[in-house]
Pyrroline-5-carboxylate reductase
Amino acid sequence: NMIKIGILGAGRVGEAFLKGLKPLHEEGKIFVAASHRRLERREELGRKYSLKIFSSNDELVQSSDIVIITLKPDQFRALSESMKRKALFKDKTVISVMAGITLDELRDKGGIEKAFRIMPTLGVINQNGLMAMCASSHVEPQDWIDVESILSALGDVIRLEEDKFAAFTALGGSGPAYVALIMESLIDSGVTIGLSRSISKKIVDHLFLSLVGLVEIYEHPIYLREAVMSPNGTTAQGLLCLETAGVKGNIIQAVIKAYQRAREME
């Protein structure tokens, strides 16, 4: 009765799922396999994770109960007609991790009826992600339980309406790049005022590592900001510069632009 999970497309995202699910595989709770077209990549993943890596997508799907599709959208669209014609996904539960591929497209182009669509944040790479998830009308309550239990190995799962996925992508999916740019700017600012790059990076790393816990203590970022800022102090002067430059508004505009692009891709 062990659930067999096949990861279709073992690129960067697919490997994150391999890594996160391997402990459940080793505990005998699930069986995990994957597929990749390149021999070198199959051998690399086989050595790294000691899991079966198929050369054939068809064989992987046929041998799986749940198929996690981590192909690039254009790869899926190129293969979908053939997959639909072969009825590969008949009676299979499918989890799509493909940006811009809707549940309707999975059904119409891939013949996939019982489908989950998820959008993960980058944190799934170290099993600390957040995943938005929605499902087709063919999904049963037990399917939700099984899939949420499996995905919890990679982080937290939230149920979200499909029409909110573009917003999740713009904020959660693209968000690491915005935060990385802020981190980079802070490190460079430390160097500019005389700190070594290594010390500056250490300060900024600690700053971000501690920030989530501090926000939980103060309940909202605005209260944390007020706690740090004293009248006419260093923080007040720094924030004045940021506000005058419209940094907050520009960040909001960046997320809006990303959201608009995500909508265009659907």
The chain has two domains: 3-161, 173-265. The chain is about 55% helix and 15% strand. The two ends are 37 Å apart (CA to CA). The CA atoms of residues 243 and 249 lie 9 Å apart.
